[in-house]
Amino acid sequence: MRRRFALGDGCITSPEVVVRTTLQHELGGYDPELRHTGDIEMWMRFALHADVGYLRGVDQAYYRVHGQNMSAAYYASVVADLRQRLAAYTAITTRDDNPLPDKHALDHQVRRVLSRDALRRAGRAYDKGTLDRDPVDELVAFAQETSGDVTSLPEWHTYRLRERLGPKRARVLSPLVLTAPARRIRQHARTLRWQHTGI
Q1: Does residue 178 contact residue 163 with C-beta atoms inside 8 Å?
Q2: What is the Cα–Cα distance from 144 to 147, expressed in whole angstroms?
Q3: CA 97, CA 155: separation in Å to the nearest integer?
Q4: 3-state helix vs strand vs coil in the chain, percent to 5
Q5: pLDDT per residue over 91-143, tens digit each?
Q6: Which residues lie closer than 8 Å to 119 by C-beta, 6 or more apart?
């Protein structure tokens, strides 16, 4: 659970989860208020009340990508994606039956994670020269309303640097701004640690 809050995304990419029927009946199914992240919230809700097992190294599902995938429209709007993820995590931290003693700290953590993600995306719009297509103002507004003081986030400073440079110079200098590669390296390191230790 804490690993999920540290990453701010869902770890299940297709319906490869097996849940005891008694647990499903006890805790309920999808939350209809969470149209696109109801699965994330549901898996975490189950994890609050039962142990989780993971089978590594075996095929568990096949996912067919086509034009009618529910996720197609959902991922088309990065701000909607971020808002839905925040809603799923907030639904967990505000549950009365959440036994985690540090749920307020986890809420603060996931808000920072999602705000940083929004600011990275806004900065990449300068790198790619896609300010006319990417919702930069919405991404920055989401970060500000979600995290509060964005000035403490490193991504805020790299975003502001790109903003001061302007799209042309930011695009030329983008190889020098290592926030995206650094994030991929950190995520890879966390994945390797989890595979070896399970934490």
Answers
A1: no
A2: 6
A3: 34
A4: 65, 0, 35
A5: 999 998 888 899 999 999 999 999 999 999 999 898 888 888 899 999 999 99
A6: 139, 140, 143, 150, 153, 155, 156, 158, 159
